[in-house]
Structure to design on (289 residues):
């Protein structure tokens, strides 16, 4: 919907393995990685998945990282007037009034109990208010997933939604205050999302429960082995095992770490917060030893 030319396959490779698609500019790559971080912010910390001003601002900070002309405006309510491309609609410009209306809109949204109504309210009112200098629609679409996460419902995506249909729907909101077309796009997109979600669920291998339990610790141990220049063996892993790994889980956990280390390379190391240069140094050390 934002004109990003990454294919679904290229996007999956970037998210899962850190592999940047050939011929794509840094802006498009950054946009996708920002979405990944923002989604993880909501999914991995359910207590943060609230319809609140802090959460909406945090989503903007994550989604706009590296994409704003003025980096200081990431996660900050705008202080100047903006225009909507392709529309004669002019959003509120006065900063004090904008701050007030942002609080009112988010406050009203938080009081809506029905998750679908709450999601649609956010998709309508956040872009209409334009509280940020840019990335408002992206924030609204991701914020619309907060009620679905909280109610354990299928997430909302916009796969296969024609860009022009969404643009026309938003123009209807901006210029006519009519939500009918956006409502139809919303309903169609959610039905499509449910179909996609079911298909994905059926194709997934059941997750390793122990891996989920120790997800953060696993990443910390892998990063410690690499940064410490240690070889890939059980002894190296054992020296890095924290006390939070229960005795009965240590053998399985060690094997998980060894498996990840065996498949680790410069393009997928970003999953564990490792930089390419750190990986190169570590790999060279493995070769010398």
């Amino acid at each position: 919907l934002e004109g990003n030319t990454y294919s679904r396959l290229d996007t999956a490779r970037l998210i899962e393995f850190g592999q940047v698609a050939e011929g794509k500019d840094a802006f498009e790559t950054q946009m996708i990685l920002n979405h990944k971080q923002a989604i993880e912010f909501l999914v991995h910390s359910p207590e943060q998945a609230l319809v609140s001003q802090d959460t909406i601002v945090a989503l903007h900070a994550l989604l706009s990282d590296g994409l704003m002309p003025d980096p200081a405006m990431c996660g900050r309510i705008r202080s100047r007037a903006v225009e909507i491309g392709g529309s004669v609609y002019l959003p509120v410009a006065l900063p004090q009034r904008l701050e007030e209306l942002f609080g009112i809109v988010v406050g009203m949204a938080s009081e809506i109990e029905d998750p679908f109504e709450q999601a649609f309210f956010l998709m309508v009112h956040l872009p209409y208010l334009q509280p940020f200098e840019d990335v408002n629609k992206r924030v609204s679409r991701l914020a619309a997933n907060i009620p679905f996460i909280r109610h354990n419902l299928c997430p909302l995506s916009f796969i296969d939604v024609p860009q022009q249909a969404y643009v026309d729907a938003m123009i209807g909101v901006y210029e006519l205050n009519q939500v009918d077309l956006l409502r139809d796009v919303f309903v169609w997109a959610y039905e499509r999302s449910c179909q996609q979600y079911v298909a994905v669920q059926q194709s997934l291998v059941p997750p390793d429960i122990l891996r989920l339990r120790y997800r953060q610790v696993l990443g910390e141990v892998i990063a410690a082995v690499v940064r410490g220049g240690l070889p890939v063996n059980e002894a190296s892993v054992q020296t890095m095992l924290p006390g939070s790994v229960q005795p009965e889980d240590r053998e399985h956990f060690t094997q998980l770490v060894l498996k990840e280390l065996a498949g680790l390379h410069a393009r997928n190391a970003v999953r564990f917060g490792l930089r390419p240069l750190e990986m190169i140094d570590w790999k060279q050390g493995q070769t010398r030893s």
